[in-house]
Amino acid sequence: MENIYFDNAATSFPKAPNLSQTVSNFIENNSVNINRSVSSLSSSLYDIVLDTRVMLARFFDCDDDPLNFCKRIIFTSGVTQSINIFLRGLLNDGDHIITGSLEHHAVMRTLYDLKTKKNITFDIAKCDKNGVVSAQSVESLINKNTKAVIINHSSNVFGSISDIKKIGQVCKRHNIFFAVDTAQTAGVIPISFRKANIDFLAFSGHKGLLSLQGIGGFVISKRLSDILKPLVTGGTGSISHSFNQPKNLPDKFESGTLNLCGIVALNHSLKFINEIGIENIREKELFLRKYFVEKSSALNGVCVYCADENIDTTSVVSLAFADFDNSYVADMLEKNYGIITRTGLHCAPSAHIAMGTFPQGTIRFSFSYFNSLTEIDYCVQALEKILKGE
C-alpha cells in the first residue's frame, strides 16, 4: 500500500482535484499583477481575485450582499499572519484580552510578546474535560479593560469545538471585539460570521480549504476595520499620490504584491468544496473519526482523547500509549507501514497542559474527505502489531 496520509490538521493532502493544472495554467498564461496595470490579462486576473472574495463572503455567511461585503475579505499568508495583524493592530498599553486554554502558538506567543512590549494583560478561559471552552468561562474573565476575546474554533490537537455562537453573544453583550481562529474548521464546518457576531475571522487556505500553503486571510467587521492598524504599509496600486496608507478596504491591509497564484488556487478549491458540499465533507470526516475512535479504543494500552460521542469535534484524534513512547510509535507507523501522522506538542503546549498531556504530547491522526475505511483498518492493524512488539 502507498503512503497513507493522516496529517491533514497540519496541511491537507491531497489537495482539491486538478489544482495543479489550475496553478500551472496561471503560471504559464496569466502570471501578471493586478492594480498596477490596465492590461486585459491584469483585468481578467482581477476578476478572479474579486470572485474569490465574493465566494469567501458567501462561504462564511458574512452578509446578504456578498459583492458589497467582499472588500472586507483580506488576503494574507495564513492564520498566523492574520492573528498578528489583529493582536498587534488592536492592543495598546493597559488593554486586556481573553483567550482559550487550547490555543496555538500563533496566539500564545504573540500575546506573551505583547505582554512584554506593550504591557497588555490576558486571561485564559479554561476548557472542560472534553477540551471545550464555554461561553460562561469566557464571560467570567471579562473586566473593565477587556478589549477582545480571541479563541480557536477547534483545537488542532484534540479536535474539540467550542460554541462560537454563544461566545459571540457574550462579546456582543459586553461590547468587546470577537476574533475566531478557523484554521481547523474552515472548509469542513459551516461557519456564519454574522450569526456568531464575529469581528475578525482568520482562515488558512492549505488545510480544510484544500488549497496551497502560503495563502489565507481574514474577514473583518466595519467597527473593527475602522480602528485596526495595519501591520505592514506600502504600495497598494491605489491613491499613489499620497504618502499615507489608504484607509479604504481591502487596500488598508494588503500592501505589496498579493499571492495571486495562491488566490487562484483558493478559487479553484472553493469551487470544488461548494460542488461536493461542506455538509457532505463534514459527514464523511466525522464518520471516519468515529470509526477510528471505536477501533483504536479497543487496543490495549491506548488512551484516546476527547472520545465522547456527545461532544462536537472535527476529524482530529489524539492518542497516547501506556507502555510506548509516542515518537517511537509514530516512527514505526511511517517506517514500517507508510502511515504519516504527527507527534509532539503540535505548536500548542497550552492545549497539552490543559488536557494533561504535557510534556510528552500525543500522536495526532487527522482525516480528510479523501481518506477511507480501508486505510483506517490498515492503520489500526499496524498499531496493534507495534503495541505487541511484532
Note down, in words, how this protein is organized:
The structure is a single chain. With 390 residues, the protein is of the alpha/beta class. It folds into two domains: 4-15 and 277-387, Alpha-Beta Complex (Aspartate Aminotransferase, domain 1), CATH 3.90.1150; 19-275, Aspartate Aminotransferase, domain 2. 39% of the residues lie in helices and 15% in strands. It is built from 13 helices and 13 strands. The chain has helices at 19-29, 40-59, 66-69, 79-90, 105-117, 135-139, 164-174, 222-225, 260-276, 278-297, 326-337, 349-355, 373-387; strands spanning 4-5, 73-76, 96-100, 121-125, 146-152, 177-181, 200-204, 216-220, 302-304, 316-321, 339-340, 342-344, 362-366. The protein has a seven-stranded mixed sheet with strand order 2-8-7-6-5-3-4, sandwiched between helices. A four-stranded antiparallel sheet has the order 9-10-13-12, covered by helices on one side. A two-stranded parallel ribbon has the order 1-11. α11 crosses α13 (373-387). The radius of gyration is 21 Å and the shape is globular. The two termini are 19 Å apart.
Give the topology string: H per helix, E per strand.
Answer: EHHHEHEHEHEHEEEHHHEEHEEHEH
Which CATH architecture of the largest domain is right? 3-Layer(aba) Sandwich
- The residue ranges in which pLDDT falls below 50 over 5 or more consecutive positions are none
Which radius of gyration do the C-alpha atoms yield? 21 Å
Largest sheet: 7 strands, mixed
| Molecular shape | globular
Could you tell me the CATH topology label of the largest domain.
Answer: Aspartate Aminotransferase, domain 2
Strand content: 5-15%
Task: Provide the CATH top-level class of the largest domain.
Answer: Alpha Beta
Figure out the total of helices: 13
Query: Can you count the beta strands?
Result: 13
Helix content: 25-40%
> If strands are numbered along the chain, what order do they take across the biggest sheet?
2-8-7-6-5-3-4
Structural class: alpha/beta
The N- and C-terminal alpha carbons lie at a distance of 19 Å
How many distinct folded domains?
2
Mean pLDDT: 95
Q: What is the CATH H-level superfamily of the largest domain?
A: Type I PLP-dependent aspartate aminotransferase-like (Major domain)
